[in-house]
């Protein structure tokens, strides 16, 4: 009986103690977050210790010893895809995050064992990688230990920042999104030759935003323009690129087109901004503003561009004259002259008065002029005649397509063909003088088409 009463009293005592206890949050609150970097989701789960008046590094967190990089269980970090961690490739998966702090350098560790409590059973043999990072000082003390993703950039990189007290350590992270996007551009545009207006537009934006080849970006945006002539966003993109290239004469003409379409589409603010830039560029270049200024732009009616006149015809003739000079230099096996005349062709192309073109002519010119410029620049950047001749076929084909499409009366243009090289060129007369072989096979070829 006494034994039974003792058990009852003891149980009541334990129950009383339990009821007397106060439920409080853990001293180091747990935290968890997930953030996307490129195509990769980065997830972190950790406990956040507080300073609470204690001296942290060198005391609470000893120098030179493995730290759980948090409190409680070891800190976990997870990557949904392969990525770069501190400049090293790490495969997708879940890892324990440990560090070894010192005053001048931290060792940051990813370990395969994610089920540890603290670092008590840490095994260096399970390390996946180790990197060295220099700590940085911050002006204001941070009470709670914090892990966050900071400094995210357009190339889908960022920093995993570990911050406590007045110290922060930033581990560079980089997703492989850029590589994937570039591979997709290569596959769809260059390999499969996909003709899609949104693909060209998006590729152009990506090249511009990631500071890649602006001339290639311009080619794509102008292709998009040619495929959808009344889309404001495409001509707007072309104008932005021309501005970045500092090709202000071409930017003026492109901006005028953007203003015309933007006004019709209700893009009042953007149109007004381009109009201001047009006026500024024309002033800087000493160009007398055309009568079609702000008052003409305010209307929503489509104003047809004037038909081709003598000024446009002269501009095209000068461009062809420069091309023929390149061709004749290649016929004479004269790479030095071909180099110089290709530079003159670029200048002649830039001087063509686009303001005198019809809408159809303008669209065609914008779609081909960048290609012609690139082809000519390739010839003008070298005195290697073999390299010059390799680029001459594309130059000839693009120029022929332009001249044929503009439909401007001029002296006959003869398209000629070399069956040995399987390549075309243009000539001011019907006589065959082959620029691909020069004196070696001067008369190899035939006339395939004549433009009058």
Task: Give an overview of the whole structure.
The chain is of the alpha+beta class and 452 residues long. It has 3 domains: 146 residues, no CATH class; 120 residues, Alpha Horseshoe (Serine Threonine Protein Phosphatase 5, Tetratricopeptide repeat), CATH 1.25.40.10; 142 residues, Up-down Bundle (Four Helix Bundle (Hemerythrin (Met), subunit A)). Helices cover 43% and strands 23% of the residues. The protein has 12 helices and 13 strands. Strands 1-2-3-6-7-8 form a 6-stranded antiparallel β-sheet, with no helix packed on it. Helix 3 runs antiparallel to helix 4 and helix 5 packs antiparallel against helix 6. The longest helix has 22 residues. The radius of gyration is 34 Å and the shape is elongated.
């Amino acid at each position: 009986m006494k034994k039974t009463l003792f058990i009852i009293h003891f149980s009541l005592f334990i129950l009383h103690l339990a009821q007397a206890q106060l439920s409080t949050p853990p001293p180091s609150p747990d935290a968890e977050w997930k953030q996307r970097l490129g195509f990769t989701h980065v997830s972190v789960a950790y406990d956040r210790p507080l300073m609470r008046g204690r001296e942290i590094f060198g005391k609470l967190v000893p120098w030179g010893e493995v730290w759980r990089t948090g409190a409680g269980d070891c800190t976990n970090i997870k990557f949904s895809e392969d990525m770069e961690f501190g400049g090293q490739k790490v495969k997708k998966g879940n890892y324990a995050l440990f560090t070894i702090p010192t005053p001048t350098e931290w060792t940051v560790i990813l370990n395969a064992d994610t089920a540890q409590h603290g670092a008590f059973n840490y095994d260096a043999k399970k390390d996946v990688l180790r990197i060295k990072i220099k700590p940085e000082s911050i002006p204001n003390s941070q009470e709670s230990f914090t892990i966050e993703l900071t400094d995210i950039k357009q190339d889908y990189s960022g920093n995993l920042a570990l911050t406590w007290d007045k110290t922060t350590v930033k581990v560079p992270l980089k997703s492989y999104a850029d590589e994937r996007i570039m591979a997709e551009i290569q596959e769809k545009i260059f390999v499969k030759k996909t003709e899609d207006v949104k693909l060209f537009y998006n590729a152009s934006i990506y090249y511009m935003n990631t500071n890649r080849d602006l001339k290639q970006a311009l080619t794509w945006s102008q292709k998009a323009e040619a495929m959808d002539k009344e889309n404001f966003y495409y001509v707007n993109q072309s104008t932005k690129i021309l501005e970045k290239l500092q090709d202000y004469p071409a930017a003026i003409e492109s901006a005028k087109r953007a203003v015309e379409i933007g006004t019709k589409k209700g893009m009042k603010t953007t149109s007004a901004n381009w109009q201001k830039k047009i006026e500024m560029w024309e002033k800087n270049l000493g160009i007398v503003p055309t009568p079609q200024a702000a008052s003409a732009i305010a209307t929503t009616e489509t104003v047809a561009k004037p038909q081709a006149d003598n000024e446009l015809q002269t501009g095209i003739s000068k461009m062809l004259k420069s091309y023929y000079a390149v061709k004749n230099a290649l016929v004479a096996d004269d790479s030095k002259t071909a180099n110089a005349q290709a530079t003159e062709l670029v200048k002649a192309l830039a001087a063509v008065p686009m303001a005198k073109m019809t809408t159809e002519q303008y669209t065609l010119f914008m779609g081909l002029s960048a290609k012609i410029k690139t082809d000519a620049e390739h010839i003008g950047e070298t005195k290697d005649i073999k390299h010059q001749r390799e680029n001459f076929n594309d130059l000839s084909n693009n120029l022929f397509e332009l001249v044929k499409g503009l439909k401007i009366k001029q002296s006959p243009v003869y398209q000629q063909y070399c069956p040995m090289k399987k390549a075309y060129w243009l000539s001011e007369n019907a006589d065959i003088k082959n620029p691909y072989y020069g004196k070696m096979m001067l008369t190899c070829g035939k006339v395939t088409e004549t433009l009058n």
